[in-house]
Prior knowledge:
alpha+beta, Uridine Diphospho-n-acetylenolpyruvylglucosamine Reductase, domain 2, Uridine Diphospho-n-acetylenolpyruvylglucosamine Reductase, domain 3, Uridine Diphospho-n-acetylenolpyruvylglucosamine Reductase, domain 1, five-stranded antiparallel beta sheet, four-stranded mixed beta sheet, globular, UDP-N-acetylenolpyruvoylglucosamine reductase, FAD, cell wall biogenesis/degradation, cell cycle, cell shape
Amino acid sequence: MIGGEALIAKLGDRLTGLRGRLTPSAEMEKITWFRAGGLAQALFQPADEEDLAAFLKAVPEEIPVMVVGIGSNLLVREGGIPGFVVRLSAKGFGEAEAISATGIKAGAATPDKRVAALAHDNGIGGFHFYHGIPGAIGGALRMNAGANGVETRERVVEVRALDRKGDLHLLSNADMGYSYRQSAAAADLIFTSATFEGYTEDKDAIKAAMDAVQHHRETVQPIREKTGGSTFKNPEGTSAWKEIDNAGCRGLMIGGAQMSPLHCNFMINTGNASGYDLEYLGETVRSRVLENSGIRLQWEIKRLGNFKPGHEVQEFLGQLL
Ligand SMILES: Cc1cc2nc3c(=O)[nH]c(=O)nc-3n(C[C@H](O)[C@H](O)[C@H](O)COP(=O)(O)OP(=O)(O)OC[C@H]3O[C@@H](n4cnc5c(N)ncnc54)[C@H](O)[C@@H]3O)c2cc1C
């Protein structure tokens, strides 16, 4: 893989005129909650949707482009991410407003918490769950983020997105193809904003629900640690944390990575864990759970990029069943 400077130089004039910020060889550990991982060959932070469309049209399709949000659900491998990583700026994509008595429009870089606060201020119910999710709206739309019995899919009306060619798409709730912690919308789509619908609710009741969300999290989750939230999706009919606990993996540590003793489906970087430590720990847990209960845990955390040579991690550590 050539360096980021060389990649940008290779594209030459194609990138002139862009208003956003280009950073060669960007350190992904600075923009992920785990504070671990390798370099993105180049990072682009578009100024606004028009700038993003111009960028997508300018970059030849054989060069990979992927989008990240606030990085609260990402594990970046040590070998880094080839091509461009796009990160939406708060300035160009962070506007949120109430558009009717029960409707909200939010840019994809708006923190979920900000949407919860806006809904509260306008007496719009159904968004309190965002108060406890540390990501931004783009990540929530892609992950169907949910908590406290509510999911993003219950609120989404329409999503604006650009495809890899820079063409605009408007997706309905059905087009987003939602299921548990995922959307079937085309993988190349970069969501830029969305509209949501809630319901009328008393502000005090909304505030109480938000406080309950916060209190619950402070009590049962290691929210002040370097973590990616739930590591694995809950399997059908059981909870990931129960299976991890039963397999004896609560507190399990590999290098600087640990399954949290407080909430054992949360993986944490205790100090200087590498992307390898984190993924190796995750696959160790998967293999032990498989051995213990026959359940094949599925990653909820998105793993990105290439392995560093000699630091490859096999699914289930290569365990055959
Ligand atoms: C302490 C903690 C608690 C958490 N609790 C919860 C919880 O209760 N419920 C829950 O659902 N999640 C939870 N999470 C996980 C995480 O916050 C959510 O998945 C969140 O929605 C991710 O948003 P993000 O902006 O950080 O996205 P990232 O982690 O940066 O990206 C996640 C995925 O979304 C994609 N993506 C991001 N932005 C866009 C965009 N604009 N267009 C298209 N795709 C995009 C990325 O490509 C990636 O595949 C928690 C995480 C932490 C650290």
